[in-house]
TrEMBL record:
Organism of origin: Planosporangium thailandense
Entry-linked InterPro entries: AAA_16 (IPR041664), P-loop_NTPase (IPR027417), Sig_transdc_resp-reg_C-effctor (IPR016032), TPR-like_helical_dom_sf (IPR011990), Tscrpt_reg_LuxR_C (IPR000792), WH-like_DNA-bd_sf (IPR036388)
Pfam families for this protein: AAA_16, GerE
Domain of life: Bacteria
Residue ranges annotated for the HTH luxR-type domain, each copy included: 847-912
Protein name per Swiss-Prot or TrEMBL: AAA family ATPase
CDD domains: LuxR_C_like (cd06170)
Keyword list, A-Z: ATP-binding, Nucleotide-binding
Amino acid sequence: MVGRDTELRRLAALAAGPDPQVALVAGEAGIGKSRLVQELTAGVPAETRVLVTQADPGALGRPFGLLLDAVDGLAVGRGGQPEWLAAVDRAALDVVADPAHSSVERLRAATDIVAALATAPAVVVFEDLHWADPESTAVFERIPDLPGRRLLVGTYRPDEVTRRSPVADLLTRLERRHTVTHLRLERFSLTDTSVLLEAVSGRPPSYRAAASLHNRTGGSPYFLEELLRAGGDGGVDLEQLCDQPLPWNLAEALRRQLDDVDPRQQRVVEAAAVLGHRIPFDVLAAVTQLPEADLIEVLRDLVRRGLMVETGDDEFGFRHALAREAVAEQLLGRERRRLHELALEALLAAGDADPALVARHAHGAGRYDDLVRAAREGSARYLAIGAAHQALALAEMGLEEAPEDLELRSRAARAAWLANLLPDAGQHARRWARDATAAQDRSAALRLLVRLAWENERREEMQVLIDEIRDIIGQLPPGAEQAEAVATVAQSYMLTERLEEAITWADRTIALADELGLPHVRLAGAVEKGSALLNVPGGVNEGRKLLLEVIEDAETAGEWLVAARGLHNLINNGPPFPPTEGHELLERMRADAERAGFEALAVAAYFEGRARFAVEDGDLRAAVEALEEGHRRERGYVRAGRRANFHGVFLAGLALEAGELDRVDAILPTLTEPGGKPSLAVLGLTFHLACRRGDVPAAEAALDDLYAGIDRIGPPYGEQVHDVVAAGLAAGLAGDRLRPLAERASWSTAVDGWEALVFAQLDEADGRSVEAIEGYEAATGSAELRAPVRASAHTGAARCLVHLGQTDRARDHVRAADALLARWAGWRVAEVDTLRGRVGLAATAAEGAGETVLTPREREVAALIAEGLTNAELARRLYISKKTAAVHVSNILAKLGLSSRTQVAGWLAKGRRG
């Protein structure tokens, strides 16, 4: 491998390693990415399974195209059909290919297929990720999470990656979740060029020849190969090439290759250049108008010459995308239009053609009516199957020719929103609202703008839009749009906690839906009413009863998204459900969300729910594991606006609980979009972290930022206020400095356990122990507080009772806190530990230290110390600095009262025996 031996050795070493590995190979077109991959796969041991697939720039409307192409390539038997193809579950393959199934079901089936095909050891290669469809990038992202020894390689062109490319976010998410080896292939140096020329010509080139060819090609391996190919098959005379007026770019080199083709071959090459990357034989035959036998003969010769390749069963394409582009650029505009027109006629005649292909060729042929029709049909079709990126691209193609088309504009706005391209969605939605002349169209645009304002946390803009929708409702004729507008107002008030208004408008929605016979709108209105009631004083029972009824009706009617939303709100509002019932509801939510294809609830919210149940049960380790699993499984870990990395926020909170401050430091930068404003959760975490580190000036500044955030966003929730107040008081901040948080908080019910707890904390800080005990003891009996928080209420009551000299009562509270924190760690446990001696209880025994004194991260480090790892090896294994590893080791030894790393192994062994 000329100039690539270092990269090849690195990839080979990764493939031979014991753990899953990810490598990303970047470089411009023609730089040698594919050749590097070919050399890698050719050199792996015979028992290694190799799965290679390549993205297609024309596969706009083909979700999961990379996986399907990979399986098709195996099935047609190129190079001999492998026996392990039998491992493919045909039913799973049918699910992947069938748009009738939800995107979540299809993704799960696709991942299962890869797991079955690429059993360890394996090398899986996705080439040209910059062209990959979103569904294929989702499959790529999940492969590193599959168990076993496996190397995943992705190649891409950096200059082709835009913010709209699905691969753009993929690259960021992979870096945050896995150790990724990045290989950037650069152009050849003069020395590399000389080595390649020697390999091709069989003798060392002169400096003049090497320098001349290096300068003319710019060191591009592909340009070099094409220049040498243009020199003919009878041997390459490098000196002669230098004396001749050599082509300086790829187009001229390819022109030399085509000099001796006959007219039939020329016709096929030019048609293929216009038709795209993967060309069906029948379409090529229709465009070139060659008989089947003649076309087969021509294609066989072009494949033999290395200009074209057989890309699949009855499919052909250029050996390199640059070759296709160069040939197409040589054609006259009229020639290109004629070929596009022939392709368009062939597609239309065949019937049921991919609208994206129809649109592309209609655009090239200048038949703009056909283009707009295909864009309308295709954008609707892609939205229906959840292919938002494809729908957006096609709608925008149509809008280039018909910018006033509201149907296309609405599709572009909705597709951009679903694809999480919120700025683009906003631009399209605002243009949609501006151009709308009918009240129905304007109302529909405003409804989407309201949702975008909510997700971008622009409360003031959201209120203005709600008022406008309210004004326009009276102008709407009776029908679905009017009812949905009323439902949007109800939902907006519910989201912004204007609960009484939400209930009023939800009742209006239900009445209007009943009057107009719109059952799906009625269900939506009932979900908003039930969700609002959960947060109204005395409304929990009524809200739960209503939501359970709505969920049942929605599932019967097949309104899976409504059912999943209802279940999500039911689980996450009001007092916790008993464990068995709560888990059943959570699994039901997941099933309904999967049927709806709504991954935010099927994955992110599902694992969030599992983590919350673990917290309610006081099991910190289980909560962290649930979130980390959600992190691995969720397609969109980093999200914009209100969807910004909730797993990260939750995980940072749990890390603060455990005292893992370095981990919080690493998570915080990922929680705010570049240029965006931090959420209240992020502001609270920043303050909490400064307090736990004892950095009072930083804490004071962070508290000012938090108050400013409340002014901008709205009131904090009780749980958030408790955490912030506890941290602030622990850092020594005055109660008066923190009391405005409690006064501005959003308390959910008349008898609010969070409210009782927070004001008890402040009363204790102000020296009002009697009042504080009353609040703390009220909080200990609150059903809505989770086990660790109730433990803190017991601890606070114990502190105040000790202060008043009531040791016996205090001892009971310490015992209760101990029981609730049996599987917890961090500052809450430390607070209890400081009280034991003061109430006459023995300190925790050494055998419990591993579960109580050590944090989950420290237990993980302790296990690796027992394996004999050095600090440097710890750092590499845990992806932390050597300094951080040394701090962990020092803390472990101090907490356990040990003096050597060897004693840690003995302590662990004793704990396992006990």
